[in-house]
Amino acid sequence: MSAIPGRLVLLGHPVSHSLSPVMHNAALMSAGFDLEYEALDVLPERLTLTLAELRRENAAGNVTAPHKPAVFQAMNRLSPLAERVGAVNTFRVMKNGDFLGHNTDAEGFDELVLRTLGYMPQNARVAVIGAGGSAAAVLAALEKWKNVRVTICARRPEAANALAERFKGVARVEPMPLENTIGCDIVVNATTIGLNDDSFPIPFDAFPRTAAVLDLVYKPDETAWVRAARDEGMVASDGLPMLLEQGASSFELWFGRSPDRNVMWQALREATGRS
Question: Where are the domains of the chain?
Fold first, then answer.
């Protein structure tokens, strides 16, 4: 690959909420790169043309909802993890012109768990809410855990069943609306519910009060679901630590070196007003 991409972007729709530019531009400045990371709000019908333009520009970047599956299909080369997940959240044009798609969400999820719990669980029962690209990345991380059992809860039964089949060694499907309380140690929101309002992905009576709550959605003041979970005395975190780690892993793919994670985290803290 070339030393420095011609352009760095985030592809999504919408993207105005994203803090990726904040942390990446801090990392780029710290590393001495004369490059700006920019968020591009791309309508689905414009995605193919946008990707063609980015390929000509020797670009690299990240992908967020709803484009991860479509970008997966557009790549002519995929990392093994991207193939396993079936979605791309990181890409770059290689020196030979290949469009390489990768997925760093699984690494980001493991970091979210470690930062929230302080350890990596064993023998865990995990409920995953959702059946899209983010849920698949969570499953790709979970299948490497020791003796894990996963319940997938999603409003689209066909998508949930397809995801469970792909990860049949660890996963099964629970219908929604839920008929019974999910027995779990960790519950993960892998949907965008709660991003634009204070909706809960599932109510608290659907899982034990002893479960840890992990929300892949992040907001400056955290999501209402995470705040409510803490009010209930539960261990909880939104997706900000995951954003940091998946971003740092993306940086390593683009530049072949690690960014200063402390600089990235400080930028995120300042942007959100968190201590």
Answer: 7-103+241-272, 106-238
For the domain covering 106-238, report its CATH number. Answer: 3.40.50.720
- Secondary structure of residue 173 in the 3-state scheme: strand
Q: Is 68 a catalytic residue?
A: yes
pTM of the complete model beyond 0.90: yes
Q: Which is the catalytic residue, given 68, 95, 168, 219?
A: 68
CATH of 7-103+241-272, one of 3.40.50.10860, 3.90.930.12, 2.40.160.40, 3.40.190.80: 3.40.50.10860
144-167 tens-digit pLDDT: 999 999 999 999 999 999 999 999
Do 149 and 93 contact (CB within 8 A), yes or no?
Answer: no
* Residue 32, SS3 per DSSP: coil
According to DSSP, residue 197 is labeled S
